[in-house]
Amino acid sequence: MPLKRRKFLTLASLTGLSVGALHRQTLSQTLSFQDHPDSPTEPTDAKPLLRWIAVGDVGIGEQSQYKVAQAMGRYRQTHPFDSVLLVGDNIYAGGEIDKIKQVFEEPYQDLLRQGVKFYAVLGNHDILSNQGEDQIRYSGFNMQGRYYTFSQGSVQFFALDTNSGHHQTEQLAWLEAALAESQADWKIVLGHHPIYASGLHSIRKHLLVQLEPLLGQHQPRTSLTDQLPPLFDKYNVQLYINGHEHHYERTLPIAGTTYLTCGIGGAQLRPTGKSSWTAFSSSQFGFTVGEVFADQLVIKGIGVNGQPFDRGVVRRQTAAPVKA
Known about the structure:
Layout: H1 5-12, H2 20-30, E1 50-55, H3 63-78, E2 83-86, H4 100-105, H5 109-113, E3 117-120, H6 133-137, E4 148-152, E5 155-159, H7 168-181, E6 186-190, H8 200-211, H9 224-234, E7 239-242, E8 248-251, E9 258-262, E10 278-282, E11 286-292, E12 296-303, E13 308-315
Parallel strand pairs: 1-2, 2-3, 5-6, 6-7, 7-9
Antiparallel strand pairs: 1-11, 4-5, 8-9, 8-10, 11-12, 12-13
Helix pairs in contact: 2-8, 7-9
């Protein structure tokens, strides 16, 4: 039976950010997760096997981006790292490669001069120019294609293009094959779009899914991000890192995978809430640090003042991944 107009308008209005309490309640009824201890236990003087930086939504070339870049440089003086993971929207507003000096080479010139390598994925703004092909070919982003993998020590990274497009079926098959072949202790997937997050885009998406039965509709979940969690569970992916939402958020492990949103690299911040699976969330400029130890990965949110505002742990699963 069709909904009355007043009821429909009421339901439609729930896609606004002001209904944070309702969306938390709704999500808690439909999502399940495994809650594990969330405090790092490594000795304070322990040296990580690998340290990397992750940050997204950076490419604006304005003061906020410079503040984050400078904070990254200062942090490296006492906490050395050799790689930065750029999780999309590398060039605002339309992915124009002729802006690369303004939004990348100049803000990060000190890090680039010191030999730090950046590994990028494409965001929704990046594909507005030539479908992102110019960025794929740009040597400073170290992309080996629209999607690719690379390893550092005991960690294998899988970089995806989570934008919609004809490449998704091929990409999903590639990812499953690459995960099945991986012998790495740590598997980390990078993409621009969130899977679990509490920002504006994610709230609207999840609430619209909840409204479908009330509207007599059911849309198949066919986006790439909708199809990733089963692969993460099957092949023991410990961490997924994304941008797109302009806030920081770390989840509790969900079926063994932690989801990390870090779109705080310079683009205008947006407010964020908390969901039933949120371990910590905050809306402030900064970056994420990952420190890899033998049996755990320590995640730190670092503000532009160089001080940590979040600290959590991802524990390495010892069970062998399930093979197809």
